[in-house]
Amino acid sequence: MAQEIKVPDIGDFDAVEIIEVLVAEGDTVEKEQALITLESDKATLEVPAPVAGKITELKVAEGDSVSEGDVIAMVEAAEAEEESEAEADKPDPKADDEKDNDKAKSEDKPDKKADEKRGADRPAANTDDSTVEPKASTPASDDHDYDCDVLVLGSGPGGYTAAFRAADMGLNVTLVERHSVLGGVCLNVGCIPSKALLHSAKVIEDAANMASHGVTFGKPEIDLAKLLDYKQSVIDQLTGGLKSMASKRQVNVVTGTGTFSDDHTLALEGNDDTDQITFNKAIICVGSEPVMLPGWPEDERIWTSAEALSPDELPESLLVVGGGIIGCEIANVYAAHGTDVDVVEMTDALIPGADKDLIKPLTKRMKARCGNIWVNTKVTGLEAGDKLTASFEGKDAPESKQYDRVLVAVGRKPNGAKIGADAAGVEVNERGFIPVDKQCRTNVEHIFAIGDVSGEPQLAHRATHQGKVAAECCAGEKAAFDAKVIPSVVYTDPEVAWTGVTENQAKAEGIEYTKSAFPWAANGRAIGLDATDGNTKLIFGTDGRIIGAGAVGPGAGDLIAETCLAIEMGADAHDIGLTIHPHPTLAETVGMAAEAEAGTLTDLYIPKKK
Ligand code: FAD
């Protein structure tokens, strides 16, 4: 049956002129395809088709004036649309929760053209392959006398965020952590200590680079104990803050290692006062641990990232196995502080997953500051003697070489299989991840999982966002994790950052896109900072909206935040280019890359296409 297509909410405009009718009667249109173009004295905008189907009747013509609610055309929806609408009408309380939430969100936000391709690129909360089938469990009950409303297992960024949000919403929360200090990997042995040491590395590099500009400093003298004290003071400030905030919120913090004994009980080891805690709902956020390579000797000179961030001494030589984010960050720390560092990476480039053009300036600088960067190379064995002898298989690497320390940075394994999840009926997949749905629920309705244990990417900002979703769901809110993008940042010098669709991904998945870039060599601030090898690029979908972005250069991680918002808001090149960016800043490169796409850029000369 034909349905009416009406002019949607077009803001504070009334009687806006139709300057173009883009379809004719009998045309078949895609969902979101533009039907008419309206022009007011302030803006031009297109009205898209709300469904795919056939235009049976046009009710307007060029030159007509229309207002919100006026009927533009009649459309006979395509079968698939009708079916999916009928499907959506089926009662499903859980799906309804999510739909309501989506609706609430979409009512708050401007209409985003959810182009199918972009939709497909959305990272779901559960980025694992497994799907979650809710399973009957002992129902969570508010009448039962449990020790707490919500038990949060693990106090990393996912855990403390979930605990604090749940407490702020009036729930009685117990936070269980096996270590005496809160904050998990991120605060204690991950994001925070690595960035404190990278700061020192950057100062050393910047000071050395100033020599060619007329300012020479002496060779740095490194007092390792003092440097590590500085790193620890940064950690202490943050973890101390967590402790105080937990106490102010009356979150009951319990130290001990928890394992489930059933779906409402956690057994506790290592705590003198309590050996079990009962809960109405639980949020699992037990994180991940570094992967070690099988068959390697047990030797304290073979490090994970945790040991590398608390060294007993600065080694003369270090082999970093794995050229991903963690490997490159730590390689940069040691190289700047005087260690001879080699990096070996199995794939064909550093930072697998990032676009090659973004990685190029980093690779060039790492080649200059490290001994060797071997890509397409495997470490085939490691022997412990006076030194650690690594053997290699790869075109450029030697057969073997000796090192004082070896860092293994080949990935992190989720801790899902270590918490007795089966006793609670919670599904754990073969990789150790706990699959979850958009509300971060596991297959057991009242048990949630968030952060590194719930899927990839294993990043702190994903964990914290999920933490809020899970806490809000525990409090009965209709929350869902529906982020379009989760940005990635490599905090090296230069920094590398990207978000949304990468070019690698677009090519692999056949996503049509256009790209615009702004080289930092044309940005005044970058020239002054001696960062002319930087670059900012934006990726746009076929509907003109931004779907991805990347940057390389100092502060790239901060720059990328603007593009994350732009993607979430469905901005196009004009929205970004017409936003006034402060001058002179590196942020201008985002605005100018957008202007390049919009054809309004004046800061570069781009010959017109013939
Ligand atoms: P975690 O932080 O791993 O916390 C889990 C907590 O659960 C731990 O405190 C653990 O002790 C506790 N626990 C586990 N099992 C039990 C149990 N049975 N009982 C009680 N407690 C338990 N991410 C970024 O976003 N940006 C970065 O710059 C960044 N840099 C990193 C640098 C390094 C060197 C490393 C290793 C990681 C880095 N990460 C970074 C990743 C980030 O640290 C993780 O994604 C993040 O910590 C995950 O948070 P989480 O809450 O899931 O778990």
From TrEMBL:
Disulfide bridges in this chain: 186-191
Region (Disordered): 78-147
Residues reported in the UniProt entry to bind FAD: 195, 258, 452
GO annotation, biological process: 2-oxoglutarate metabolic process
GO molecular function, one term: dihydrolipoyl dehydrogenase (NADH) activity
Cofactor binding mode and count: Binds 1 FAD per subunit.
Record's protein name: Dihydrolipoyl dehydrogenase
